[in-house]
Design a protein that fits this description.
With about 325 residues, this protein is an alpha+beta fold. It has helices at about 5-30, 230-235, 240-245, 250-270, and strands at about 30-35, 40-45, 50-55, 65-70, 80-85, 90, 95-100, 110-120, 125-135, 140-150, 150-155, 160-170, 175-185, 190-195, 200, 205-215, 220-225, 275-280, 295-305, 320-325. The strands form five sheets. Strands 2-9-8-4-6 form a five-stranded mixed beta sheet, with no helix packed on it. It has a five-stranded mixed beta sheet with strand order 11-20-19-13-15, with no helix packed on it. A hairpin with a 6-residue loop joins β8 and β9 (about 125-135). The longest helix has 26 residues, at about 5-30.
Length: about 325
């Protein structure tokens, strides 16, 4: 046999061996595993996305398949999204779902999700898809932790609420609280006071701020020291007698002295009540500035001291309203 014929037979044998190996591998495969694209394919930090799996039997396979999930990234030292397959054990033909949760994930970028199925005599089967975590600017929100208590007060009373300032996406900075609006508009609505007025956020824990709503009530009497006019006039009583005493002589002067002493005693007696205390109503607040009765709604705002940015949930209207009802003060 010539060399050419030997080379042809050698190549034919190699091709036959490869075909037999491929056939053996195909016949040994017990199931197939396919994964659909994630929906949505990109999410904000803290968001979720999902995909569907399809597991089909091959070559009469009737066993079970165990499914597992792994998330990888080209970036190192970062928090990876969490992956959950449900159910984790299936019997083909069937399906399963894959859920990716990105809570705590701060690093934006693509992430690779690999599903591995094991079962039967064939090697593990894998399916791979990619999802993306979007880049989000760190910010903060405000929420009502406790509503105003009491929510109805007489004019002159106070209501107290607790507002939480919540950092999100790694926000760090100083935030100042204020009431930007109150409805209805009146001359003397309840007054907002925050304690503390500003908070410094870092980490992920919310910080509480106490909001006090103070109303203006009617005035109350005050006690004052006053000298009565009758006492002041009593001091003049001895003077006419003193003039008579200075011009009198002899017996007349003695009688005038006795009379003068009598008038001095009367003057002192009249002066004693003038040194007492009297209760005098003092008007501190005119009735026009008492907080009118009604229900007041406040818009609570938080502002970043450095950038001037407001809480992200204010513009969307998801922050809870602060309300306080003012009733007339009881009369005494």
């Amino acid at each position: 046999m010539s060399g050419f014929a030997r080379r042809v037979l050698l190549r034919a044998g190699m091709l036959l061996a490869a075909a037999l190996l491929l056939l053996a591998t195909a016949s040994a495969q017990d199931f197939s595993l396919q994964m659909a694209a994630f929906n949505p394919v990109a999410v904000d930090p803290g968001g979720n996305t999902s995909s569907n799996l399809t597991i089909s039997p091959l070559n009469g396979f009737t066993g079970t398949v165990n499914l597992s999930c792994q998330v990888t990234s080209l970036q190192t030292g970062i928090t990876l999204p969490a992956c959950q397959v449900s159910p984790q054990t299936v019997t083909p033909p069937t399906g399963a779902s894959v859920t990716i949760t990105t809570i705590g994930v701060l690093q934006a970028g693509p992430y690779t999700v690999t599903i591995t199925g094991t079962g039967g005599s064939s090697p593990p089967q894998t399916a791979t898809e990619t999802m993306t975590v979007l880049s989000v600017t760190p910010s903060f929100t405000i929420t009502v932790a406790t509503v105003v208590s009491p929510n109805s007060v007489p004019d002159g009373g106070q209501g107290v609420a607790t507002i939480n300032v919540n950092p999100i996406n790694g926000y760090a900075g100083t935030v100042t609280m204020l009431c930007s609006a109150v409805s209805p508009v009146t001359i003397s609505p309840p007054v907002c006071n925050f304690n503390p007025q500003s908070v410094t956020l870092s980490g992920s824990d919310p910080l509480p701020v106490t909001l006090t709503l103070t109303t203006i009530g009617p005035t109350t009497p005050t006690t004052s020291i006053a000298v009565a006019r009758k006492g002041f006039y009593a001091l003049w009583l001895p003077f006419p007698m003193l003039a008579i005493f200075s011009f009198a002589s002899g017996r007349k002067r003695m009688r005038a002295g006795i009379t003068l002493g009598f008038f001095v005693m009367i003057a002192l007696i009249l002066l004693i009540p003038a040194c007492g205390t009297t209760t005098t109503p003092r008007t501190v607040n005119d009735n026009l500035i008492i907080t009118p009765t009604g229900t007041y709604t406040f818009t609570v705002t938080a502002v970043d001291n450095a950038t001037g940015a407001t809480a992200t949930n204010i513009s969307t209207g998801t922050s809870s309203a602060i309300t306080l009802t003012v009733t007339a003060a009881p009369t005494t």
